[in-house]
From TrEMBL:
The organism of origin for this protein: Rhizobium chutanense
SMART domains with a match to the protein in the record: PGA_cap
SUPFAM superfamilies: Metallo-dependent phosphatases (SSF56300)
Lineage: Bacteria, Pseudomonadati, Pseudomonadota, Alphaproteobacteria, Hyphomicrobiales
Protein name (Swiss-Prot/TrEMBL): Capsule biosynthesis protein CapA
Family of this protein: Belongs to the CapA family.
Annotated Capsule synthesis protein CapA domain residues: 6-319
InterPro entries linked to this entry: Capsule_synth_CapA, CW_Biosynth-Accessory, Metallo-depent_PP-like
């Protein structure tokens, strides 16, 4: 038997500004919720510009922050960070090294990047109260292969980078469309050498027989239907599942984190492959599964008494004002989820506090400047956020009760 235990999880923290000078009581309310839990977890959606330097390796979506933001997250109450995401390599290997150095200096439990593949994929552990907690964090892209950590081999030195869950994107086409695409490729005199040249610095994708073609970096497959698929690499998935099982066998609560940008056309819809992988992680021993990537709230599932948060959207979202792609209201609405475990270690309930990132005034009036922090939602706004989450979760068999401004999933 152990003491009751709680984990607060939030949306991703794309943070560029130090919040410690803000004396707003609404931010203090958020911090109070986070500090009330034994573990407070978020995804650090940036890379740290520290003593190792670095240079931008991305275009308009580049993001980096000073080490001060880590102190700000610590002061808010966070003590655990996932580091695997599409911004972690924005400064290249130097940014990876600086981020590792700074999060360690601030005593965060952290995982998802490393000096090499072995380091990046290794579960990182810390004791909170009476519970041993392990964190395994990974990113499924899409992104260039050079942003992922690599072990040294003969002729290649190790590369600092991100822990990868390897997946590939395949488009299935009915025979007529597939044959048309192949004929276009032939008329353009496209050759394997040409495609290899244009794939640089990547290697061209692997093909499996005559029913697949590489059309300038995208694989199309002859099929009975037209569909877009994300296919997990079995070896990569098995390696992560083995790491989960190893830690779970040590009486450790394992938090598994997945970041990805393989969104559905409706970006609040949970991809089938993510749900399958989340179930596999729980079957392997994960005590909590959290995912980010799409900057919107997605459904919650309780599978084998284990909470699965398919997408918690945003918590801090310091974007540029001219980035209109983030203007939909669902981008700015989320929840803080607190998972409460009893003395037996079993999940007892999940409490959900709805929040508005940037403040309710800016949500209703785009001309208003957004606050650099989230605020608790109340009244009609709180009800709308919770009711929408309940609807999105119902398909997974999740029953979400709402009492005033708080939601709860009880057992």
């Amino acid at each position: 038997m152990s003491a009751p235990f709680s984990i607060a999880v939030t949306g991703q923290s794309l943070i560029r500004h130090d919040l410690r000078t803000i004396g707003d009581p609404r931010l203090a309310e958020i911090a109070e919720i986070l500090k009330a839990s034994d573990v407070a977890f978020t995804n650090l959606e940036t890379t740290i510009y520290g003593r190792h330097g670095g240079w931008p390796l991305k275009g308009s979506y580049f993001g980096a922050a000073a080490p001060d933001v880590l102190a700000a997250l610590k002061e808010l109450g966070f003590n655990s960070l996932a580091l695997a995401n599409n911004h972690a390599f924005d400064l290249g290997p130097p940014g990876i090294l600086s981020t590792l150095e700074e999060v360690a200096a601030h005593n965060f439990l952290h995982a998802g990047i490393g000096h090499n593949k072995h380091h990046a994929s290794t579960a990182q552990k810390m004791t909170f109260g009476s519970r041993n907690v392990a964190l395994i964090a990974m990113d499924a892209g899409p992104g260039p292969s050079f942003m992922y950590a690599e072990d040294a081999t003969e002729g290649r030195i190790a590369r600092p980078g991100i822990n990868s869950l390897k997946v590939s994107r395949v488009f299935d086409l009915e025979a007529g469309t597939f044959n048309l695409l192949r004929s276009i490729q032939e008329r353009l005199l496209s050759s394997p050498l040409e495609r290899a040249n244009y794939a640089q610095p990547e290697d061209p994708p692997d093909l499996h027989g005559q029913d697949e073609i590489d059309f300038y970096g995208t694989v199309f497959r002859r099929s009975d239907e037209t569909a877009r698929r994300i296919v997990m690499d079995r070896h990569s998935a098995r390696a992560h599942l083995s790491a989960i099982a190893e830690e779970a066998g040590r009486d450790t609560l394992v938090i598994v984190y997945l970041h990805h940008h393989h969104w559905e056309p409706n970006w609040q819809q949970v991809p089938v492959w993510v749900r399958e992988f989340a179930h596999d992680c729980v079957n392997a021993g994960a005590g909590l599964f959290v995912s980010h990537g799409a900057p919107v709230l997605q459904g919650v599932e309780i599978y084998r008494n284990t909470p699965i948060f398919y997408g918690l959207g945003n918590f801090l979202f310091h974007t540029e004002k001219d980035e209109q792609e983030w203007s939909p209201p669902e981008v700015w609405r989320s929840v803080i989820a607190t998972c409460n475990f009893g003395s037996s270690g079993q999940l007892e309930n999940v409490r959900l506090r709805p929040i508005v990132i940037g403040g309710t005034e800016a949500l209703s009036n785009p001309a208003r400047d957004r606050l650099p922090f989230p605020v608790l939602a109340d009244g009609r706004m709180a009800a709308d956020i919770l009711d929408d989450l309940a609807d999105r979760s119902a398909g997974f068999g999740t029953v979400l009760d709402r009492e005033k401004n708080v939601g709860q999933i009880a057992f």
